[in-house]
Amino acid sequence: MNDPEFLRIVEEGMAAQKKARERLKSDWDKPPDWEEITPESLKPAIKHIGDEFRTVEWQLASQIECACYVSLHPEAATLPKIKGFDNLIQMDLRETWHLQFEGMTESERFAHWTEQYGALLKKNTVVPFNSFLKVGLAQESLLQLPAVKWAKSLTRGLLFSLRWTVPHLIKSMCDEQENKLDLDISTFDAWSAWVYWRAPAFVFMQPSGNAPYNAATAWQRAEDAEFTEQLLRGLTGKMLDPAWFNVDKLAGEAHVGLASLPTVEFSEIREEFQASEVKQSTVHSDSLPVKQDSTNEPPLEIDHPTASPPSLVLVAAQREADQARERIRHFEAKIAAIETKITAFQESLTQAIVQGTSTFRPRDIDKAIDRLHNDKKELEFRRDDWQLNLTTALSRLVTVTQQEVPPKSVISESHGLTVAQKIHEAQISRDVTATNPNPSSSSVTPSGETTIDRSEIQSSRTTKAKLQAKTADLSKYIDGAALTDRQRECFSLKFEYGLRVSAIVKRLELSRKTVDEHIAAAKRRIGWSQINEKRKANSARVTPNE
Fold first, then answer.
1. Is residue 235 a contact partner of residue 173, using CB atoms and an 8 Å limit?
2. Hey, CA dihedral for 76, 80, 82, 84, is it positive or negative?
């Protein structure tokens, strides 16, 4: 194109973009390059995590671009293709898409979708940060930085790279790129960066910006390329800041979580067992007699006495496992409550769209459902983290158990178990007690101590565990839902007592498929029950009983 005015616009745009790129390269907040702080052996894993994040972000950007463009250009909502690509709006929503933004100004629509991008990107940063942190904790000896700081730097690096791409996303959210340049080697950069684009006025009008909204000038274009670059830089920061600050929050929570994990404090645990532990017998050599203590217990043939009794490590691991179980039950109860709310809102949305009987607008209901889904996803991430902590604690528990229990051949079978072994068995089977204990399976030693037969402990592990106290009271959702006994039992065990499906299967002696079906049916009935209650309440407000 030989138009001098257009060529001037392109040159100004290229100059402004060059300044913006130089500013990004020397930004004081720029994180270190991920390859510089990552050991060679970990680079494939880190690259994979980064690629997964970029894929998710690309999908998010495509959806936001389509939705914002259609909201600003409602005539394009029903088209099968937009800008040469498939229309990402669902087929059944295209005809009514314009109703969601009826009465909203261009700046309000634009601000809505920039906020949506920032909020969803904030949620999506949790996955890469957790993945980086897990790798860092497992391979901390190879890192030059602490694991949390390393994970924070890598996640910030992913977000910083978006400062190069989000400005183009903002342009695409507002307009369709026109091929005003003859594409060749000399114009490729200008064409790719869309440097001749100028910001419409609604971009910096309230609530998107600070200028008062004026419908007459909303689509007027800025003339200055430098002003447009400043706007793009400011909007980019506004869209990325929620995720950027969320990384700080995640790192802080990781520091607190790691500092809160129980550690093996032998001095504290020794005090708890001081009254019940007995001195270990010591064997100097096979040719020397065994020195016994004053408890009249038979001697143990220990080849290598340990400096720290394994039962102490056992208690620390058990504490960690108990804490993880409690947190998992807590998050699963919250997830169950959110799922019930989502079902109720979805039914209300159906009424609003199809029947027109809901007192809420479809757009408000849809926003509420999105927020609930985002909250549920974050709770699931947190539950999975505690599940990983529980798995680690149980692995430690198994390891300590195998180290502590001596071979059968070194224990005098006629005298049962020693006190230290009884402590061990009590810790392992604390949550698994027999419903009908057999009094004849225990005996009393000459010193007055009760011994426990191994067959009793083994049989107790196969019986049903006593339920602990409820972690959540969901009776207000369950009552009035007309659940069957099995549905109520399965739902209560999972969401009120915090049992996993596998534990419910063992307790009720049902198949996993049957338990899943009972829980799903209970969820549906509880959802419909909540809808009926709301419908009755609305009806009572309109036509009160005489």
1. no
2. negative
Angstrom distance (rounded) from CA 488 to CA 486: 5
> What is the model's pTM?
0.51
The rounded distance, in Å, linking the Cα atoms of 238 and 502 is 45
**DSSP category for residue 29:** T
Residue 515 clears pLDDT 50, i.e. is over it: yes
CA distances in angstroms from 217 to 205, 220, 222, 379, 404, listed in the order given:
10, 5, 11, 45, 80
Q: Are 427 and 315 in contact (CB under 8 A)?
A: yes
pLDDT above 70 (res 298): no
> For residue 538, what are the domain limits?
475-542
**Contact in structure between 499 and 489 (CB atoms under 8 Å):** no
Asked if residue 315 and residue 455 are part of one domain, the reply reads: yes
Q: How far apart are the first and last CA of the chain?
A: 79
Which of 226, 260, 294 terminates a domain? The answer is 260
- Measured between alpha carbons, how far is 498 from 226 in angstroms, rounded to an integer? 58
In a domain, 283, yes or no: no
Indicate if 456 and 309 belong to the same structural domain: yes
- For the chain, give the percent of residues with pLDDT over 90: 26
Q: Based on the structure, what is the number of domains in the chain? A: 3
CATH at 505? 1.10.10.10
Q: How far apart are CA 108 and CA 208, in angstroms?
A: 7
- Name the nearest CA neighbour of 250 among 131, 170, 169, 335: 131
Contact predicate 482/527, CB 8 Å: no
Q: Are residues 143 and 203 in the same domain?
A: yes
- Give the mean pLDDT of the chain: 75
Residue 295: inside a domain, yes or no?
A: no
Residues 195, 145 share a domain: yes
Final residue of a structural domain among 462, 489, 517: 462
Q: Over the stretch 161-219, which tens digit does the pLDDT of each residue have?
A: 999 899 999 999 999 888 777 777 777 888 888 888 899 999 999 998 889 999 999 99
Out of 339-353, 420-434, 506-520, which region has the weakest mean confidence (pLDDT)? Answer: 420-434
Structural domain includes residue 341: yes
CA distance 518 to 383: 23
- Residues 152, 219 share a domain: yes
Tokens representing 144? 């030059």
56 close to 158: Cβ distance less than 8 angstroms: no
543's CB contacts (< 8 A; 6+ apart) are: none
* Positive/negative CA dihedral, 204, 210, 211, 215: positive
445 and 485 in a single domain? The answer is no
Both 487 and 430 in one domain: the answer is: no
Indicate the helix (H) or strand (E) that contains 160.
Answer: helix 147-161
Q: Is the peptide bond before 207 cis (omega within 30 degrees of 0)?
A: yes
Q: Do 253 and 326 fall into the same domain?
A: no
Asked if the structure places residue 286 within a domain, the reply is no
Half-sphere exposure of residue 471, counting CA atoms within 13 Å on the CB side?
22
Is 368:345 a contact under the CB 8 Å cutoff?
yes
Cα(66)–Cα(172) distance, integer angstroms: 9
Of how many residues is the chain composed?
546
